């Protein structure tokens, strides 16, 4: 959000900024949004806690204090934080390593994990490390989230069908399926698949139906966000009428009455060490998800998001979750969009949502206890289907094959190796791909576009060239990984018969010359000088020239530095005109295949 | 070396190429070079085996068959392979983990390590992975080698002074020094320090002395390469006369007569697993050292080196070492330079050197057995002093602070964490530094250099600008790690009052637009279109344009693609001339501080 920054502390506590402009209109809007989000959030919080292998009430606890803290610290006006699908899956993967799902140790470890995530996010925020998020490429993130969606859906089959399945990879999860299906009951699959069918139908035809009933389109869309709670309640009523609840159809079970337990997370040092690395991954993935949503919504409102402040907001929210019986949380896509569409104006909507959930907990917990797990699983499955973005695969694959391969590899690593391996493979591959690309820089020999001061690739355009003056455009910053390629290219050019008298390196695309490249240029300069060929630079950028100024390259350069390629071309041709080159180097007009478009 | 490639197998066996041109002149040159290198190599091979914690004879074994194999497979005419300082240090670090120095297991493990290195190098060569070497930046490599030199010198103190010291890091090596010095003997330090003094004096004044005796400069320099063997022989004679050899002054000891033992390396699978990773590091470091030397010498002769063939040559040589009682080897700097200076013409010089060493072994082993270890240690210490390149630190630090920090960090990591941690820290830091740099791209708003078609940074040059047309030059390829910075920069420009009517992105420095950046540009295009601002591209390079062609960005672009910035400037100004901008956007001449040099 736009912040005037008048209050000295507003930099760290955005609420000081928007709080003073708060009025009745904003209050009404925020309250309405909070009501809708609350109704949507209750089943979501229960379901994602279940996905993480935690008691469902943990999800509710994680939706109280953290939302209030984010209201104080967050910089997004519409982001809604709480338990989220991918982070819950990662939580399950991390905790499964240290304790048995559902045990007291498991619950305690979840608090440690939330605390570690909170600290990591806060530290990143205070160190202004928000830029690190930039190192996750979109294709890799899309691949990771899509594959996580598949993993999540598979992990919910056990609740949906009431069969024993476990594991954190797709093969492990599907391994016991045939056997499990053989021992299938009747009641649970009926409730689960029935809920799935109802959710699917509402999603498919609900909006049209409501509009035919006279509900305006936008309101209809908002109302349909309540489909999960409606479905679960209907399923609970039907299963209750059939006498299945608790007898054949598993229900959520005891939800302790009252406020969340406050306290410090505890655990052996060994536990903290084991959970540190998963906490790093959870923090990064959670932050990336959260900041992407917040950014998208901020742009739609013309607001500005502070990535580093978001780290602090999320970090504070996770600490709050750790101190109040919760679990690792982050900003969620669907709930934030609902908050946005329902008209939330300020972060206060989040605090009101927390109040709403508290009210529900205090009033309705006996009812919540009787909700069927199978229906909750159905809501998760429907929700994560939207995480699978198949068109993105096609789009990326067609635009950039290498990135497409990285994307597919990320999917495979996530499905077959689990979420942590998946995200690491993805990040590693996208960095490796980028480095590989820059290590083989594109270079082009250029000539003059007739009648202009413009120079273009001789292989793509009809341009003037001269055998005495070779002009090489280097299309990449020069650094340690790619200097050898440049050396090879220059060698090829100067080994021509007749050799050129001058070699001009056009540096418009060179943004950095590192120490390794500098050494290499110095060696090149010596070699060309020995061969009687001048080495000239053109269009060297300011920041690059500033650093070259004092180097021995500039002191010994066997040639000149020109402002523009055109200037180099004019001056060097003029200086060599008195000495015709061995090969009769007249300016020739080279006509190549028609290509003439707006490309170099 | 230049290869005509006439023989179909010459690609893989360079000997088929140079072999057929072999004649009597080349033979004479190669024989002379081999004689000098042999005399230099014998003490070196013994000393480096000792450095690796292996029986000295191992160094001789590693200088026989491997040299012959390299002669067949290598592409450098002057590279001399064998045991080398840094690789021997790394070998000691790796073997120290699996067995006690000097034990039979230790010797067997050295063969496994050589075998693994050989296989890794061969596989890299066959997969044409020679380019991987480019990912080690010079500053990091210089830092690593310098620190290794210090570690090696420190590790030789125990032999030089005849005291018990051990460890693979500087603190560990120096830890026992005070206590060791308290228990110092007399004979060994006398021999060791005496040898050191003699070597130092020969190095310092030897050449001048020889030249005063009438020896030509070049011959004097070559003769001085024999200083180590002369020193060791003198030390042995003196110590022998004093009756110290074997009584107070440790000697090399038993050197088995006859040929090296041939056989396959063996070991537990666990051993192979443990040594795999060290073997990878040894292969990479050895290859980088070797290829740098070979490259430098090839340039001096105008020959061309095939990096992938070098991998195969080194891989074959290491396999040969593994099968004949050797140790991991690589191409060495000093011995190759001696080979070069002594006039070696073809790889045959290497084979002759191997023959020479064999002769020495068969004839002189009783003499070799009585060489004092302290003198060998002195030769190592003098040799590795040249690895420490202090001026490079100053140069790099002044040119690029970030790389200087990486260099110093590499030194610290090597000294205090050992060679393996050192090289990993170095590679990691140089990549991280590069990525960090490209993630914060330089962007410049540009204006027209009056009277030309050239556009330069408004903050550095006196250029014409127009409030209606903002021209932003992006000085970096657009990829996932840096698109957010561009978004921020564009936002700052279009939020100006009055806002521009057109935004031109000058893409001359953009070599790649990846899928993440494409999405970001599409989003930018939508935002600017909504704000009524045209988004135009200029100077898009051919390869970039080819890929953009079919994307939705090109289909929905709210503006045009211009061949040059000048064209964009002309056309856009003409089109907006009828509609004066809110802020009275006359073309203004902006004069900035004098800077006018050849920089953008």
TrEMBL record, chains A, B:
Q: Does the keyword Repeat apply?
A: no
- The answer, when asked if Aminoacyl-tRNA synthetase is one of the entry's keywords, is no
What domain of life is recorded for the organism? Answer: Bacteria
Question: What is the protein's membrane topology class?
Answer: Multi-pass membrane protein
Q: Name the Gene3D superfamilies for this protein.
A: STAS domain
* Predominant place of localization: membrane
One of its Pfam families is: STAS
Q: Where is the STAS domain?
A: 459-572
- Protein's cellular compartments: Membrane
Write the record's keywords in alphabetical order, separated by commas. Membrane, Transmembrane, Transmembrane helix
Segments crossing the lipid bilayer? 31-51, 106-127, 177-202, 222-255, 275-299, 311-329, 349-368, 375-394, 406-433
Q: Which InterPro entries match?
A: SLC26A/SulP_dom, SLC26A/SulP_fam, STAS_dom, STAS_dom_sf
UniProt cross-references to NCBIfam families, sorted A to Z? sulP
User: Can you name this protein?
Assistant: Sulfate permease
List the gene name.
sulP
């Amino acid at each position: 959000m736009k912040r005037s920054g008048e209050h000295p502390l507003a930099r760290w506590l955005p609420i000081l900024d928007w709080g003073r402009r708060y009025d009745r209109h904003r209050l009404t809007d925020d309250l309405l949004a909070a009501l809708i989000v609350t109704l949507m959030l209750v089943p979501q919080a229960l379901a994602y806690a279940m996905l993480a292998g935690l008691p469902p009430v943990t999800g509710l606890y994680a939706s109280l204090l953290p939302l209030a803290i984010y209201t104080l610290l967050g910089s997004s006006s519409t982001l809604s934080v709480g338990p989220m699908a991918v982070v819950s899956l990662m939580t399950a993967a991390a905790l499964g390593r240290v304790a048995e799902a559902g045990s007291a140790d498991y619950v305690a470890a979840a608090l440690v994990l939330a605390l570690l995530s909170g600290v990591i996010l806060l530290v990143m925020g205070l160190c202004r490390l928000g830029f690190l998020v930039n190192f996750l490429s979109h294709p890799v993130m899309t691949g990771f989230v899509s594959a996580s969606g598949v993993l999540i859906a598979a992990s919910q089959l056990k609740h949906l069908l009431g069969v024993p399945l476990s594991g954190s990879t797709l093969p492990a999860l599907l391994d016991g399926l045939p056997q499990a299906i053989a021992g299938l009951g009747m009641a649970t699959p009926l409730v689960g698949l029935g809920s799935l069918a109802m959710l699917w139908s509402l999603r498919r035809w609900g909006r049209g139906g409501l509009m035919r009933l006279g509900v305006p389109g936008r309101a209809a869309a908002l109302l349909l966000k309540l489909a999960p709670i409606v479905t679960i309640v209907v399923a609970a009523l039907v299963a209750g009428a059939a006498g299945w609840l608790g007898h054949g159809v598993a229900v959520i079970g005891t939800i302790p009455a009252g406020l969340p337990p406050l306290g410090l997370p505890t655990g052996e040092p060994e536990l903290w060490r084991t959970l540190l690395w998963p906490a790093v991954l959870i923090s990064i993935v959670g932050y990336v998800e959260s900041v992407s949503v917040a950014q998208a919504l901020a742009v739609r409102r013309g607001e500005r998001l502070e990535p580093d402040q978001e780290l602090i907001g999320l970090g504070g929210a996770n600490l709050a979750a750790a101190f109040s019986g919760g679990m690792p949380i982050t900003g969620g896509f669907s709930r934030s969009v609902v908050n946005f569409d329902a008209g939330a104006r300020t972060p206060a909507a989040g605090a009101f949502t927390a109040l709403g959930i508290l009210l529900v907990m205090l009033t309705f917990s006996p009812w919540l206890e009787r909700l069927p797990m199978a229906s909750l699983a159905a809501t998760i499955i429907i929700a994560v289907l939207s995480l699978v973005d198949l068109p993105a695969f096609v789009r990326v694959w067609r635009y950039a094959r290498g990135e497409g391969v990285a994307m597919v590899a990320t999917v495979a690593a996530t499905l077959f190796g689990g979420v942590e391996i998946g995200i690491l493979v993805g990040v590693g591959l996208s960095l490796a791909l980028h480095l590989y690309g820059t290590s083989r820089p594109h270079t082009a020999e250029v000539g003059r576009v007739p009648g202009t001061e413009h120079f273009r690739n001789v292989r793509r355009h009809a341009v003037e060239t001269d055998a005495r003056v070779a002009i090489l455009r280097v299309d990449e910053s020069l650094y340690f990984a790619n200097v050898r390629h440049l050396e090879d290219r220059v060698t090829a050019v100067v080994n021509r018969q007749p050799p050129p008298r001058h070699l001009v390196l056009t540096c418009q695309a060179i943004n950095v010359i590192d120490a390794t490249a500098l050494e290499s240029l110095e060696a090149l300069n010596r070699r060309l000088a020995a061969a009687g060929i001048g080495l000239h630079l053109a269009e060297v950028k300011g920041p690059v020239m500033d650093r070259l100024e004092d180097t021995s390259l500039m002191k010994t350069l066997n040639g000149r530095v020109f402002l523009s390629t055109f200037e180099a071309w004019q001056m060097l041709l003029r200086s060599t005109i008195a000495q015709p080159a061995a090969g009769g180097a007249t300016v020739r007009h080279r006509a190549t295949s028609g290509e003439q478009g707006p490309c170099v």
